[in-house]
Amino acid sequence: MRKNMILILGLLCAAVAMANGQFEKAMSESIPAMFSAQNPDDLQNAINKLDRIGEAEGDRWEPYYYAAFGYLRMSGMFEKAEEKDKYLDLAMKQVEKGEAINPNDSELEAMRGYIHMIKLTVDPATRGMMYSGLAFTSFQKAIKLNPENPRAHFLLGRMQHGTAQFMGGGSEDACASLFKAKVLFMKGEETENPFAPSWGQDGTEESIQQICENGE
Fold first, then answer.
1. Dist CA 167 CA 133 (whole Å)
2. Which end of the chain is more exposed for a tag (fewer CB within 10 A), N or C?
């Protein structure tokens, strides 16, 4: 009986290890595919795979985070506002799936704000007041949840810059946020999660050059 229990436990441990290995392999393939996709078909394939990974795991928020990012990227591949909105709405649904697993997460909240920010750009004249407020709220909440999240500071800086351009203000606030993001990226992000978001450093450097050094 004891030998049988040991055998069963061994098989269960092996199954868990295999499942973990499959998750890691699938994520290691799907995340780069999402970032590198250059057309809607390839991007949709990567998103579909990420969504399936999330459904199969059931307790991991990361696949939904990257699926949301994929739909956000997808929105930029179309010209019509209706198409952009369709994919941004799908992105938000993925964020909500992630939040159901991991509520009050800084990265998911920053992604929520990013989606609001892009929603605003689809029609700034009519959406400015509503979506600027939603975006600022999300970025500020993301920073409150984790002051060391460089993506939250980077996206806040981009939002502050866009608002200043629209309202005719200066770039001081935007540059303060962008330089804060730069410091945090240079400091390095400490995490045991190999699939934690790590993007944004190049965008931060480019934004600083354009906005704070060249005075865009």
1. 14
2. N
Tell me which residue of 113, 88, 86 sits closest to 99, measured CA to CA. Answer: 113
Same domain, 120 and 213: yes
- Domain co-membership, 125 together with 156: yes
End-to-end CA distance of the chain: 74
Crossing angle of helices 106-122/62-75, nearest 10°? 10
Q: What is the pLDDT of residues 40-49, one digit of tens each?
A: 999 999 999 9
Domain at 130, CATH number: 1.25.40
Tell me which residue has tokens 């209706």.
82
The pair of structure tokens assigned to 28 is 């290691």
The reply to whether 128 and 207 lie within a common domain is yes
Alpha helices in 37-149 (DSSP H): 40-57, 62-75, 81-101, 106-122, 124-145
Q: Are residue 165 and residue 135 in the same domain, yes or no?
A: yes
What tens digit of pLDDT does each residue of 143-184 get? 999 999 999 999 999 999 999 988 777 899 999 999 999 999
Beta-carbon count within 10 A of 18 CB: 10
Picking from 154, 160, 137, the residue whose alpha carbon sits closest to that of residue 200 is: 154
Hey, how many other C-beta atoms are within 10 angstroms of the C-beta on 28? 12
Q: Please give the model's pTM, rounded to 2 decimal places.
A: 0.89
CA 172 to CA 62: how far, in whole Å? 34
Separation CA 31–CA 199 (nearest Å): 11
CA distance 143 to 20: 31
Q: Pick out the chain residues at pLDDT < 70.
A: 1-20, 215-216
